Amino acid sequence: MKHLRVVAVLVAFAIASPFAPAQEKTVPSKSPIIWRLDNDVVFHKPFFLSPDGKTLAYQETVFRDDRDDVVFYDLQKKKEIRRLQGLYPVAPVLSPDGKTLVVNTLLKGVRLLDWKTGEMLGSFDERGPSDFQLTPDGKFLVGTRLRPELPGGPPQRVQIHVYEVATGKLMRYFGQQHESSGSPFSLSDDGKILVVSHSKGLGGGPKEGSRYRISIVAWELATGKEIGLVKEPKVIVVQRETSGEHERATMWRSDGLYGPNCRVRVSPAGKIMIFPSWPRGVLLEASHVSHFTLALADIRTGEVVDQFTLFQEGGGLYSFALSKDQRTLAASGGFEMGQRKMALVVWDVSKVFENVAAKKMNLAAKQMESLWQDFGAKDPILAYRAMRQLAAAPEQSIPFLEKKLDQSLGRFTGDPDDAPTRQILWGIEVLEQVGTAPARGVLSHLAKSASNEWVASEARISLKRTEK
Length: 468
Prior knowledge:
Elements: E1 6-7, E2 33-39, E3 47-49, E4 55-62, E5 67-74, E6 79-84, E7 89-94, E8 100-105, E9 110-114, E10 120-124, E11 131-134, E12 140-147, E13 157-164, E14 170-174, E15 185-188, E16 193-205, E17 209-220, E18 225-229, E19 234-238, H1 244-254, E20 261-266, E21 272-276, E22 284-288, E23 294-298, E24 304-308, E25 316-322, E26 328-334, E27 342-348, H2 350-358, H3 365-375, H4 380-391, H5 394-408, H6 419-434, H7 437-449, H8 453-465
Parallel strand pairs: 1-21, 15-20
Antiparallel strand pairs: 2-27, 3-4, 4-5, 5-6, 7-8, 8-9, 9-10, 11-12, 12-13, 13-14, 15-16, 16-17, 17-18, 17-19, 20-21, 22-23, 23-24, 25-26, 26-27
Helix pairs in contact: 3-4, 3-6, 4-6, 5-6, 6-7, 6-8, 7-8
């Protein structure tokens, strides 16, 4: 099969290396701690915040009974409200709407649990896949499974499994033709396309770091048909100074599949551009600034507005989560070097959010022209930053984009390698992200009058999504 090329637009933020030295200047956080659980349990296990930040669900090991539980905790009332015992969960995930918790258990297969009540909504007697994600409509569960490499046998490969939630039936599996030692994946926000980041170890050592070849493959979820493959997979180098989880996170972000959802636009010729699925109203991003420090940044400018250094003296930061309403932040890690001293901590960051929301972006004409040029650059991180800034200043950017799009339509080729094509598609993304009446007016004009059918089609799709 001849593979079509995927042009992957990185959606990752530019993040600092997580391998920074332990000695850093301690800067107190502006946000108060509202809850903290100290435990000798290694809190690199997953945890989740409800969309409103009022409930925390985390995995806890009960050593005396040799079991792993899922605990639901009310952060306002400061009490445990539910405990699901003995599930032995592996990599639980929360659905995009925040209503369903998917728990892959070691002994009881896959469980789908109602977030509010803990009621079991469904179960699958399947213990193979390790990573799961629900489609946005909640109808299908997608999981990946690594087929191990046996002595003298074929290389390790990934399999993608698709289950029907209502029946638990395995609908199809595919993807096993790609060698891979790790395969983080992302679903398009319409649930139709699956994008998988394949990584294959190429060797290396402690001094030079480990080398991985990364490729991005897109699949049609309904049929299992491969849509495209990166023609020239990228080789990245990961230092061996930290855990495998950090290596995996680094590989994941290095290829831009940031978060569970993305937006995929497919040209008539089969070429693909991958964009961030960035919900309107999102102003804050939580990210590592080092292996020991967590930061909150203004997503529009990249400015760090608060940072959290609780884990500087210990084993470092393991994982973190920001609630959907951007008012609650949780993180886990070690806080005492050389000791089994771990903590899961929750901060109230509502004041930080309110201060950022109160700031208005104003862009001069010269700045907007520079951002438009970034849309056409080969470096997609520049395009993503430009999109965030233009979307944050709609009063200036919408009239500017209307003019630029009108001027560029005659140069649109439909080839994502060409700057005008990238500029127009990123411009449509900005209009969708803003979603105001003026932005919708520009999309409507493109949908009706654009001479290129792909542009008109993408404008219609974006216009329809702004109605939700």
